[in-house]
């Protein structure tokens, strides 16, 4: 397959090894931390919602702002928030600035769950990632992550995502 700029080059062996290594690392760390949170009754998504809400003024956020902060679609967050609301971890409130929108509010039960989970999560992150790397590795990881999360200059963040490219 080709793109507007020509054929898509296959990954060279060192590129392929780096890609596969990154995938294995992401999977291993995510699986480990998810397992540790599950042992105390939370999913990674639950923890992410609780922790990001706890950082907001009055522990309240609009659904849209919260979804953007987490990199989720509004519909995904809305569905997940419904499940968390049923468990008493958050509540929805009307958004006075947007009659069609809603606010997500961290409940006392949600804050307690987060307080209980935070030490477990930190220990898990340490065990599965931090304590396994030297300080220079952590610095390199931070530098690399900073480059990867920045939008590409050739991609319009407001436009459609680039189409996937598959070799012919």
TrEMBL record:
Gene Ontology molecular-function annotations: DNA-binding transcription factor activity
A Pfam family hit: MarR_2
Organism: Micromonospora matsumotoense
PROSITE patterns reported in the protein's UniProt record: HTH_MARR_2 (PS50995)
Annotated PANTHER family: MARR FAMILY REGULATORY PROTEIN (PTHR33164:SF99), TRANSCRIPTIONAL REGULATOR, MARR FAMILY (PTHR33164)
Domain HTH marR-type: 15-150
InterPro entries on file: HTH_MarR-typ, MarR/SlyA-like, WH-like_DNA-bd_sf, WH_DNA-bd_sf
GO biological process, one term: response to stress
Protein name (database record): Transcriptional regulator, MarR family
């Amino acid at each position: 397959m080709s793109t507007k700029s020509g054929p898509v080059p296959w990954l060279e062996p060192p590129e392929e090894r780096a890609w596969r290594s990154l995938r294995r690392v992401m999977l291993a760390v995510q699986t480990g931390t998810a397992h540790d949170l599950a042992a105390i009754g939370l999913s990674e998504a639950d923890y992410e919602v609780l922790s990001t809400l706890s950082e907001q003024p009055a522990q309240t956020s609009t659904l849209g702002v919260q979804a953007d902060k987490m990199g989720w679609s509004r519909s995904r967050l809305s569905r997940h928030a419904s499940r968390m609301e049923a468990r008493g971890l958050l509540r929805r409130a009307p958004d006075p600035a947007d009659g069609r929108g809603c606010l997500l509010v961290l409940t006392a039960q949600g804050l307690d769950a987060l307080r209980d989970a935070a030490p477990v999560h930190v220990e898990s992150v340490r065990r599965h990632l931090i304590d396994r790397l030297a300080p220079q590795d952590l610095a390199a990881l931070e530098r690399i992550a900073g480059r990867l999360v920045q939008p590409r200059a050739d991609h319009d963040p407001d436009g459609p995502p680039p189409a996937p490219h598959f070799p012919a």
